[in-house]
């Protein structure tokens, strides 16, 4: 099971302003590949802007305090934002979390088409995502 840093998600009420800032001030481009296709009919329909330095993506997502309630998930990834890692073996990673006694919320394909996502908290309460690309 391998993990790689994939993206940092900032939850915001100013998606357009944040997108302009990270484009014009920070010089980040739109990712050339691997841009997620949002599943806007499954519980989170917020706007998201995508930027990248060429290696790591930044997702600027409309804050949605109710997404967890609408989808029935304990961890809400668009409340405060999150840091995300990609794995090549979700089952092994979930078994690893279970062995460590770390509870997680399995969002499956609720938010992003072709991604299996889980979310959990680090010891300081920051949301962490781990996802695996899967066939649609």
From TrEMBL:
Highest taxon above the source species: Bacteria
Residue ranges constituting the VOC domain according to the UniProt record: 4-133
Organism: Lutimaribacter saemankumensis
Database matches in PROSITE patterns: VOC
Molecular functions (GO terms): dioxygenase activity
Record has Lipoprotein as a keyword: no
Keywords: Dioxygenase, Oxidoreductase
Name under which the protein is recorded: Catechol 2,3-dioxygenase
